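To whoever picks this up:

The nightly regression suite flagged ABC transporter ATP-binding protein as changed. Nothing in the input moved, so I suspect the structure step. Input below, exactly as stored in the fixture:
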Amino acid sequence: MVAFDQVSKAYGEVRAVDGLTLSLRAGETVALLGPNGAGKSTTLDLLLGLKNADSGTVRLFGTTPREALVAGRVGAMLQSGGLMDEVTVAELVRLACALHPKPYPVADVLSRAGIAQLADRKVDKLSGGQAQRVRFALATAGDSDLIVLDEPTTGMDVTTRQGFWATMREQADQGRTVLFATHYLEEADAIADRVLVLHRGRLLADGTAAEIKAKAGARRVSFDLEGPIDEPALRGLPFLTTIGISGRTVRIQSSDADATVHALYGLGLHPRNLEVAGLGLEQAFVAITTAEEAKQQ
Ligand SMILES: Nc1ncnc2c1ncn2[C@@H]1O[C@H](COP(=O)(O)OP(=O)(O)OP(=O)(O)O)[C@@H](O)[C@H]1O
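Regenerated output under the current build:
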């Protein structure tokens, strides 16, 4: 569906996308994660043909991005890009439907995006979250095979966000490929069946959320201690990466929890309420990207 082959894009000295190779298969729901400036928006712009690569090739459905867009195979919701002023929501959605080669009925698009009651509202009078829903309506105005969303839920309240993802799941269940960039890692964890982690324009990790968590390697260990806490001794535990002590509770992150816990007993301590758990996607993301930063410095 989507194939990036050694794609690079620089802005002056900044290598926004750096030798990126990846492919997306039909029916996948893929989250694109990365710290600020990692190159997510640039990657999506290259995918949509809004920017041209300095080198490498981007192919959508075996054609150029532009051809795929003209054929109506891609629906996109971008982070920026103003909505037209001085028109109503219904007029704007009607225009998007008219421009799509395989449009849905306007009423269906409005109700799917949850904006039927806003149909007669001027676009420039919308709240931030309402404007996001209108962008979503424009991205789903017709039957596209690929839906690209750049930080789609920014500014949406909790209910709107849940509704939005329920709709996206329906789209995915119907066989569409959904690619979305986000900073909400819990969304990626809950929605995506594949997670890509970008860092300085390169792909750092590519797998299911579970694989990304495993790749981070670390585990969380927490326990309570009775009696005075010997902090230097705890800090000397093997494979420890971080430690936090609040009251009687000690929370650590370890790259080898078995060895750390073994050493804990070796110190003659008697931890109570011991818990060992894997990292959440957010912690795994931080572990992977900070390890990469450290490697590059
Ligand atoms: N038009 C531009 N001119 C110059 N530099 C740019 C331009 N667009 C992006 N950049 C730089 O390219 C890098 C990648 O930016 P990009 O917007 O793709 O990252 P991002 O991962 O989407 O970031 P964010 O999470 O903050 O939205 C950044 O260092 C950014 O400052």
